[in-house]
Write a structure and sequence with these properties.
The complex is a heterodimer. Chain A is mostly helical. Chain A has one domain. Chain A is built from 3 helices and no strands. In chain A, helix 1 runs antiparallel to helix 3 (48-78). In chain A, 32% of the residues are buried. Chain B has a domain at 7-264 and 274-350 and 417-490: Sodium/glucose cotransporter, CATH 1.20.1730. Chain B contains 26 helices and 2 strands. A two-stranded antiparallel ribbon of chain B has the order 1-2. In chain B, helix 5 crosses helix 17 (341-353) and helix 24 (522-544) packs antiparallel against helix 25 (559-576). The longest helix of chain B is centred in the last third of the chain and has 39 residues, at 419-457. Chain B is globular. The chains are: A mainly alpha, B mainly alpha.
């Protein structure tokens, strides 16, 4: 496999992991909205589903994007595909 | 004081700007104490901030295409994040979102999840690759990746339909705020709003829009957060509301149980002014089916990833790496406002509902409430209404009505904050609506001037002529948007949600598959864009005209129909026609790695 194909395979795997986490917190948990609301887990005292819609999912997305960016940069570095300064 | 290049001094420039704005707020507060009228404070706030934006717009004027179309590709990560956040958060986010949460609760909060979750798709599927491509506009990517004027033109059509739906709502919002703050009639205020929008974008294109959007973000976030923190401290709910309102949320649920949701008769409701609503849904419990919630969230997420005015912000960063990180910063700055909206809704509701608080009105005598100063003000502005339906002299929960936007606009006054805060909120709303309108008008006129005029009609046009065409189109589109906004066809939020569905129907899969599926070709993309847009629109028209719809897909989620048709037709048509040539396949390979030259040159 060429260097470029390996790079793309790793990139694609990272995409799948990222989208899997995204799916859980944007879609997956809301399949069980009513059940989660009754849960005894109460972040900062808020009902669980309510907290996810107000803060939880939103904050997880922010962290997820920065984590994804960091991982992708590592993959690019590994194969020497990082842009050089001033390159357009 | 400031030496060297503007880009190197950004933190200093915007630091001074923020300090200056805070000093301005303090001066206004002192002026209020000295007896300045509420009306004058409102005028000062809106006029002062709009003039600053216009000044920035004038300072950023340019005669170069790459500065006009992509701000010279030198906007640093964090500042691009702020500009995107302002670009993104519209007048609807600012003025209507807390109200929507206040009235509709859980079902509405699908929008919060959708409008943030979409950025994960932007960061992972699209933004870095489109930045590597080096395009000026979204149709520029479609036209070059798939090849051919038909693909390019189809993308322009989808872009125009989606963005134009959105922009009328934004010009409408600037008009509403300008008419209230400056006390002029709405149909004149719309054009005042338009003029402010054009001043920010006409001379400097993307460069001017970028630097005004950063300034607008600073104003809008101060204007949103300051009242939330202040009210929370004022009523003793906690000094950091986001982590401390659990007791208030529980208390609202308790009061809801105590008062009960009494259904009003149709005859009683007929006396309530149009557009006002009462509290009929529980504040924090799950009041929507999983499918209703998820389908709306999915539409907003896919729409986010397809709206060209957002995507084109990531064309302005210096590199692929910064484009990727910039998406994270954008979402962080958006998160600051979105996570505060439910807190504002909670504070507003508890202030009004709790009889043990001085501000509570439910359970008080109707005559007393009608005598309140703030009630009279907002009742006159047609944003509030009470009526003693059952004739017992006491105000019940089902006898109090408010317009959604009143949650943001009126809560500071209800909670007893000085008027200077209301003036600040008006300036924030204006900033939010203007920044989004600017991005949208520019997205449409850039697509028409670059993709239709330069790439299709007159490829030999000189730079000067291209930029004149771009500016003339900008003005024309602004006027068209303002004219339609003056007609007031659909409420602010309705048309915003439609824009996401239109964009998702036509552009989501052609964009994503352009990067992630090498086999996708021009006929497939054209079929995907046009059939997606047509089927989505047809479904919307059908449901609007009393059609029953299917699978619980409503007029707010018609993008699901459009995008499904788009995906299927794109794959089928691509597979039955010839695979893209070797040069195109090589182009896709090059897009997938950050290093090396962009596909399109610096000037094209």
């Amino acid at each position: 496999m060429s260097k470029q194909e390996q790079h793309w395979e790793k990139t694609r795997n990272l995409l799948f992991i990222t989208l899997a986490i995204w799916f859980v917190f944007s879609i997956g948990i809301f399949l069980f909205g009513a059940e989660m609301q009754e849960s005894s887990i109460k972040p900062f005292g808020y009902p669980l589903t309510y907290w996810f819609t107000c803060q939880g999912s939103l904050a997880i997305f922010v962290i997820l994007i920065f984590w994804f960016a960091g991982r992708q940069e590592k993959i690019d570095d590994e194969f020497g595909f990082t842009e050089r300064e001033g390159e357009q | 004081m400031i030496k060297g290049k503007f880009i190197d001094n950004l933190p200093k420039v915007y630091g001074i700007y923020t300090g200056g704005f805070l000093v301005f707020i303090i001066i206004m507060a002192i002026a209020e104490q000295a007896g300045m009228s509420a009306k004058m404070i409102g005028i000062f706030f809106v006029a002062f901030t709009v003039l600053i934006y216009a000044l920035i717009g004038w300072l950023s004027r340019t005669l170069q295409t790459d500065a006009y179309y992509v701000a010279g590709r030198q906007v640093p990560t964090v500042f691009n994040g702020m500009a995107t956040a302002a670009d993104w958060m519209s007048g609807a986010s600012f003025v209507a979102m807390a109200g929507g949460i206040y009235f509709k609760g859980y079902g509405y909060m699908a929008l919060l999840v959708g409008w943030t979750g979409g950025y994960v798709l932007v960061a992972s599927l699209l933004a870095p690759y489109l930045r590597k491509f080096g395009c000026y506009t979204v149709p520029d990517f479609i036209g070059t990746r798939y090849g051919g004027n038909l693909a390019r033109f189809s993308a322009v059509i989808v872009l125009t339909v989606a963005s134009f739906t959105y922009v009328t709502a934004q010009i409408n919002a600037t008009g509403t705020i300008a008419s209230v703050a400056l006390d002029i009639p709405f149909n004149i205020a719309v054009y005042v709003g338009l003029l402010s929008i054009l001043m920010c974008s006409m001379l400097g294109g993307m460069r001017a829009v970028t630097w005004t959007q950063v300034a607008q973000y600073i104003v809008l976030i101060i204007a949103y957060l300051l009242p939330v923190f202040w009210i929370s401290n004022n009523i003793g709910a906690g000094f950091f509301p986001h982590f401390m309102l659990a007791d208030e949320v529980a208390r609202i649920a308790e009061l809801e149980g105590q008062f009960g949701f009494v259904k009003n008769s149709a005859a009683d409701l007929a006396t309530v002014p149009k557009g006002l609503a009462g509290i009929t849904k529980p504040h924090s419990s799950v009041n929507a089916t999983p499918w209703a919630f998820i389908s709306l969230a999915v539409c907003m997420m896919a729409g986010t990833a397809s709206l060209p005015h957002v995507m084109m912000r990531y064309f302005t960063t210096p590199s692929v790496r910064t484009a990727r990180r910039s998406v994270g910063w954008s979402l962080f700055f958006i998160f600051l406002l979105y996570s505060s909206a439910p807190m504002l809704a909670t504070l507003s509701k508890i202030s009004l509902m709790d009889p043990t608080l001085a501000t509570g009105i439910i359970g008080k005598s109707v005559a007393d409430v009608q005598a309140l100063d703030w009630y009279q003000n907002w009742n006159q502005a047609n944003l509030m209404f009470v009526s003693d339906f059952n004739g017992n002299g006491t105000l019940e929960l089902n006898e109090f009505f408010m317009k959604g936007s009143a949650v943001v606009l009126a809560t500071p006054e209800i909670a007893g904050l000085p008027y200077v805060i209301s003036g600040l909120v008006a300036a924030g709303g204006m900033a939010a609506a203007m920044s989004t309108a600017d991005g949208l008008v520019l997205a449409i006129s850039n697509a028409l001037s670059h993709d239709v005029y330069y790439k299709i009609i007159n490829p030999k046009a000189e730079t000067a002529k291209r930029l004149i065409v771009a500016r003339v189109l900008l003005v024309l589109i602004g006027f068209a948007g303002a004219t339609i906004a003056a007609l007031e066809i659909q409420g602010i939020l309705g048309s915003v949600i439609w824009a996401f569905d239109f964009a998702m129907s036509g552009l989501f899969f052609p964009l994503v598959l352009g990067v992630w599926w090498k086999r996708a070709n021009a006929p497939g993309a054209v079929a995907g864009m046009l059939l997606g847009l047509i089927s989505g629109t047809a479904y919307l028209i059908w449901v609007r005209n009393g059609g029953s719809g299917f699978l619980g897909i409503t007029q707010l989620t018609f993008g699901i129909v459009g995008a499904s048709v788009s995906l299927v037709s794109m794959i089928v048509v691509s597979l039955i026609t010839a695979a893209p040539d070797a040069a195109t396949q090589k182009m896709v390979d090059d897009v997938r790695i950050p290093s090396g030259k962009t596909i399109l040159g610096k000037q094209h």
